[in-house]
Amino acid sequence: MTSATTGSTRNLLTDSPELYEARFPDPGRLSARWAEDCLRRHGAGPRVLDIGCGTGRDAAHLHGIGRTVTGADISPAMLDHARTHHPGPAYVRADLHGFDLGRAAFDAISCLDSAMLYCHTNDQLDGFLSSCRHALAPGGLLVTEMRNGAYFLGRTDLLDSPTVNEFTWRGATYRSTTTLTVDRTAQLLRRSRVWIADDGAEPVEQRSAWRLLFPQELRHLLAAHGFEVLELHDGPGPRTEPPWQEGLLPGRTTDADRLHLVARATGPDPAS
């Protein structure tokens, strides 16, 4: 570990996929089951791209229920872990800011856990959506879930004080202190997370950020890239309280702290 005082941007969790899965266990594969429910309800074909697949848990679940899945991520460590521990899908390295995995090669794209919000600029968002539109067959689906920028209009409960979490992995106790701030000019939610372990290692400070998108802004972006919004709501979903479960239908509001999106590629690819 490197010292927190150095301003290191090392991502402790993506550098250590097994540690990531220990910190964020998902034995019930809730995110993947929610995504599958969206795909099934809207009649998606079998070929799925899971962009920002991380450790591969969701991609492997979708593969295991009969879909033909490609998992894509920019982290070599995550991809190596996925191939070893969650086999089945094809795993490839790709940058969600812009990728080309074949024209009309997929019937659906899933992008979960706010991965889309690592597109910080308008150019990066355009690159992501253009790449998705190019990759989807006509009528294909884009399924995403992410933080909701509108939640931070007049609310500060997630910003008022740091959040502390602690867990034990391989005999060591890890404590993280997370502080969130809003950069209104850049329209980013910035996160500083300091990790301390009781194994004698130096603390690590990890910095990251998510783009804050508003529901109507998101509709406009999708329409500009040839998508029709089928669902856009704040829950239930895999990270809402209470969480989604089988049989629950999407809501009608976009006020809470998560957004859930299903959009269909319509007409010809605007980039063609």
TrEMBL record:
<dbReference type="InterPro" id="IPR029063">
    <property type="entry name" value="SAM-dependent_MTases_sf"/>
</dbReference>
<keyword id="KW-0808">Transferase</keyword>
<feature type="domain" description="Methyltransferase">
    <location>
        <begin position="48"/>
        <end position="140"/>
    </location>
</feature>
<dbReference type="InterPro" id="IPR041698">
    <property type="entry name" value="Methyltransf_25"/>
</dbReference>
<keyword id="KW-0949">S-adenosyl-L-methionine</keyword>
<protein>
    <submittedName>
        <fullName>Class I SAM-dependent methyltransferase</fullName>
    </submittedName>
</protein>
<keyword id="KW-0489">Methyltransferase</keyword>
<dbReference type="GO" id="GO:0008168">
    <property type="term" value="F:methyltransferase activity"/>
</dbReference>
<dbReference type="Pfam" id="PF13649">
    <property type="entry name" value="Methyltransf_25"/>
</dbReference>
<dbReference type="GO" id="GO:0032259">
    <property type="term" value="P:methylation"/>
</dbReference>
